[in-house]
Amino acid sequence: MCRHAAWLGPVRPVSSLVSEPEHGLLRQSYAPRMQRYGAVNADGFGIGWYDGAREEPVRYRRAIPIWADANLPALAEVARSACLMAAVRSATVGMPIEETATAPFADGRWLLSHNGRVRREAVREMASDPQSLCDSAWLASAVFARLRAGDPLGEALTSVVGRAGKEDPEARLNLLVTGGDRLAAVAWGDTLFTHLAEGVLVASEPLDDRPGWQAVPDRTLLLASPDGVLVTPID
Ligand code: GLN
Questions:
Q1: Distance from CA of residue 186 to its chain's centroid?
Q2: Can you list the residues of the chain whose pLDDT is less than 70?
Q3: Any residues with CB less than 8 A from the CB of 114 and at least 6 apart, and which?
C-alpha cells in the first residue's frame, strides 16, 4: 500500500523526505523495500508543510506518479519547514484515483496520511463530510471530527483506530498526523519506522541505510514533540 513519511525538528526541505535520501519516497514509489501490499505507488502523491505566512499547512497533491511531475523537484527544494509530511499512493481496489483521495488530507491546521485500507462502513458513523469516496478520506474525516471536538491528538487517534479496528478486524490503519508543532503516528497492520537524530523522522520504511532506524511495534501510538517520543500500546 502507500508509503508515507513525516519530519518534526529543525527546518528542512520537503526534498529531505522525497529525493535526497537514497530510499526516499521518490524511490519508494517504484522500488519500495518493505511493501507488503501492492508493488508500486503510482496513483498519486502529496506533500504538506507549514510556513510562517499562514496558520494552515500548505499542500500540493497530484493524481499522477511522483516521478512524472517535472515541477516537483524545485518545489520540494524550496518548500522548507520544521514540520513536513509526504506520501505516495497505491490506490486500494475500487477507490477513486483523484487529488481529493490523495494524502495528506487536511482540516484547519491538521495534516493526515493513511497507509492501509478500511471498510468505509466501519468509520461511517464517525466521519463527517469526507473530501472523497476514498476510505482514507473517511478515516481522516473521523479523526478530524474528534480533533474539532477538542480531543487531544493521541486520544482522537486511539478512539478512532480502536473503533474502526473493532468494526473491521481486517483493517490496516497506519496513520501519520501533525498539527505543525507535534507529530503522531499509528502502527496498525503495516510497517512503521522512526529515526531520532536532531528531530523525529517517521516513515513506512527507512529512507536510507543510516544506523538508528527503529521499527515501531504494531498496534501502538507514537507521540512526538520537540521534547521526545512516547510509544504506547493501543487496546
Ligand atoms: N486505501 C487508501 C487508498 O486507496 C490507502 C492505500 C494505501 O495505503 N496504499 O488510497
A1: 9
A2: 1
A3: 2, 103, 105, 135, 136, 139, 140, 173, 174, 175
Dihedral class, residue 161 (left if φ above 0, else alpha if ψ from -120 to 50, else beta):
alpha
Pocket test for ligand 1, best of 35, 36, 114 (most atoms within 8 A of CB): 114
Distance 171 CA to ligand 1 centre (A): 11
Query: Which residue ranges have their beta carbon within 6 Å of ligand 1?
Result: 1-2, 38, 89-92, 95, 101, 114-117, 134-136
**Residue ranges covered by each domain of the chain:** 3-233
- Give the three cell numbers for residue 225: 514533540
Asked whether 184 and 224 are in contact (CB, 8 A), the reply is yes
Q: Please check whether residue 173 is in contact with residue 117, taking contact to mean a CB–CB distance below 8 angstroms.
A: no
pLDDT of residue 37: 86
Contact 44, 100 (CB under 8 A): no
At the top level of CATH, which class does the domain 3-233 belong to?
alpha beta
- C-beta separation of 66 from 73 below 8 A: no
- 70 membership: H or E segment, kind and range: none
Per residue in 85-110, pLDDT tens? 999 999 999 999 999 999 999 999 99
Ligand 1 pocket check: which of 2, 45, 88, 172 to mutate, most ligand atoms within 8 Å of Cβ?
2
Gap from CA of 115 to ligand 1 centroid (Å): 6
User: What are the residue numbers of the active site?
Assistant: 2
Q: What pLDDT shows up at residue 129? A: 86
